[in-house]
Structure formats: structure tokens, C-alpha cells
Amino acid sequence: MKIPGERKGAIAHHGKPLWKRIISCWELYLLLIPGIVLTIIYKYIPMYGVQIAFRDYNPTLGFSGSPWVGLKWFTKFFTNYKSMEMIKNTLLLSLYTILWTFPIPIIFSLLMNQLRFKRFKKLAQTILYAPHFVSIMIVCGMLRIFLSPYGGLITMIASAFGADTSIGLLDQPGNFRSIYIASAIWQDAGWGMIIYMASLSSVDASLHEAAKVDGANTWKRIIHIDLPALVPMIMINLIMSFGNLMNVGFEKAFLLQTDLNTATSEIIATYVYEQGMLKSMYSFSTAVGLFNTAVNILLLIVVNKIAKKTADISFI
After folding, report:
1. Is a pLDDT exceeding 90 seen at residue 201?
2. SS3 of 68, please?
3. Which residues, other chains included, contact 190 with Cβ-Cβ below 8 Å and sequence gap of 6+?
4. Predicted confidence (pLDDT) per residue in 32-51, tens digit
5. How many CB atoms lie within 10 A of CB 265?
6. Domain segments of the chain: what residues?
7. C-beta separation of 98 from 177 below 8 A
8. Which residues contact 127 (CB under 8 A, 6 or more apart)?
9. Rounded to two decimals, what is the model's pTM?
10. Which of 9, 86, 110, 225 is 20 to 30 A (C-alpha) from 42?
């Protein structure tokens, strides 16, 4: 049987030895080198230091000279009366953040895609994107001012509706997660919509035209044309979100934390910073961080397998 030229070329190309394929596309492989080198330097080489989680690390003795203590620091963490509370706070804050922030960019992209006035569409996109470029430090500073018990704008509005503002809203443990998630939506929802807008731009316009001819209204076109086009990207983002479930944003949690709201604001990331940087308990903080990473990897594998079975989309 005769093989078409394009298919034959592809087979011949894959049949070449690896070094010949590299030589034939050496420009592309050359572009990979900086990324590979940086990944090795900043991601793989530091893994050597993970061993201090199993040692009683002493900076004067170095990694190999410090005594091996096995699972001592892991045991210390799990027997700590605060450990379960920190794990709970981390999981709840992450889950609530995913629950509320994940669908909003999808909704925004579907609504934005229906806008036909180009000037208004560009203005709306700019307004939604802009908060992403405000630094976390400034966002937290704004929140502290707005939530201040001494004339803060949000505090005054809450007080007008009968809320108890005798204690600052930010200082009340029950408010921390809502404040954290609301600020995350305001800052990142518009930016997260970009990738979905890009997916929608690839949808063939003739599908919408055919649907209109068949009598489909806007809602039905969104459900049956636009939303299916977003499913692959939704699943990929969902896998990545659950893969970072335990990596709650340290900066915002730390900057919004006060002595009064630690019951809900103290998460694993802030605890690792406190133990490692402030108390110089390097081995203990590394052990806690390693546990956090191990949970993330496990969740990533589980969610990846679920996505593979349900939507035939996976990273592995």
C-alpha cells in the first residue's frame, strides 16, 4: 500500500536516531536550554536540602554533618496541638477559594463573549484586568484601611446595616475567610478570564450562525457551543488548582493576619515562616513544608486520574 508523502515523511522522521532529530531541529532545542538550566538550578538542586527534614540541622555542621533523627520533626508536628487546626484552616481556605473563585472567570468569559459593542467590551475588559496588577502588599493595605474600626469605609457601611463593629471586621476570626476570598475574586477573576476568552475565540462562528437558523437562543448557544469549547481548559485549570490545594497564598494570609484572627488565619505556610525564619527551627519548618508538598502531589495525582476517566484530559 502506498503511503501518502506527508505521512511517510512523519514516519521517516520518527524513525531517525535521537541525535539526528536533535541536529535537524537544533534551533528549537537550543531555545530550551535556558529554561532547562534555570529549572535545574532553582527547582532540582535545592531538593538536596530537603534532607534536613530528617536531620537535627546545625548550620555549623552542614547537611551531611548534622545528626540523622528520622521522623522526629514530623512526629513533633502531628503531636502539636495546633497542627490539626492549621491543616483544617489551610484546607478550608483553599477549598472555599476554589469554590468561589474558579467558576467566576468562566462566567465572565461567557458573558464577555456575548458583548457586541467593541468599545464597551474593551472598557469592561480593562476594568476587570486592572486589579490583577495591584500588588498584594497594596491590596492588603487597602483592606486594612477599609476595614479599620476607626472610620473604615466598609466598617461604616457594615455598621449602618447593624453589624457589630466594636471589634474590627478583620480582627474577627469568622470574617477572615470571607475577606480573603472576596479580595481574591476582585483581584484575579478578570485576569483568569483571559485564557477562557482565548479558547472562545477559536470557536467557529458558523456554529453560532447555524444555531440561530435552527432557532437556538443565546442561552442555548452558550450551553451547547461555548461551554463545551471551554471544557478542556476548565479541566486543566481544575487539575492545577487542586494540585496547589495546600499552597494557599502566603503573602496575603500573612499580611492580613492579626493577633485576634489567628484561629482561622494561621495556615501551614505562615506557620512554616514563623518556625523557620523567626525561630530558626530549620529542620522542623522543612518537615512541615515537605508534608505540605507531599499532600499536594498526592492530590494532583488523584485529581489527574479522575479527570482522565471522566473527561479524558490529564497531564500524565
Report:
1. no
2. strand
3. 105, 108, 125, 127, 128, 129, 130, 131, 132
4. 999 999 999 998 998 888 89
5. 22
6. 5-47, 71-311
7. no
8. 190
9. 0.81
10. 86
Cα 308 to chain centroid, rounded: 20
Give SS3 for 55: strand
Rounded to whole angstroms, how far apart are CA atoms 314 and 316? 6
Cell of 155: 466598617
| Cell numbers at 278, concatenated | 523567626
**Number of residues assigned to the chain:** 316
pLDDT digits (tens, 9 = 90+) for 60-118: 888 888 899 999 999 999 998 888 998 899 999 999 998 998 999 999 999 888 888 88
* Kind plus residue range of the DSSP H or E element containing 58: none
Q: Do 253 and 265 touch, CB atoms closer than 8 A?
A: yes
Q: How many CB atoms are located within 10 Å of the residue 232 CB?
A: 13
For the domain made up of 71-311, give the CATH fold: MetI-like fold (1.10.3720)
- Please list the residues that pair with 68 across neighbouring strands: 55
Distance CA 3, CA 289 (A): 55
Backbone angles phi, psi at 55, to 5 degrees: -125, 160
Q: Which residues pair with 55 in a beta bridge?
A: 68
